[in-house]
Amino acid sequence: MSTSIQHIQKELTAFEDLFKNAVKSNVPLLDRILKYVVKTKGKQLRPMFVILSAKLCGEVNEKTYRAASLVELLHTATLVHDDVVDEATHRRGYFSVYALWKNKASVLVGDYLLAKGLLLSLDNKDFNTLHILSDAVSKMSEGELLQLEKSRLLNITEDDYFSIIRNKTASLLASACAAGAESSNNNPDVVEKMKLFGEYTGIAFQIKDDLFDYGTDDVGKPTGNDIKEKKLTLPLIYTLKNVDTSKRRALKYMLKNSNRRKESIHQIIKEVETSGGIEYAIEKMNEFKSKALEILNQFPPSEARESLESLVRYTTERKR
Question: What structural domains and CATH numbers belong to the chain?
Answer without folding.
Answer: 2-317 (1.10.600.10)
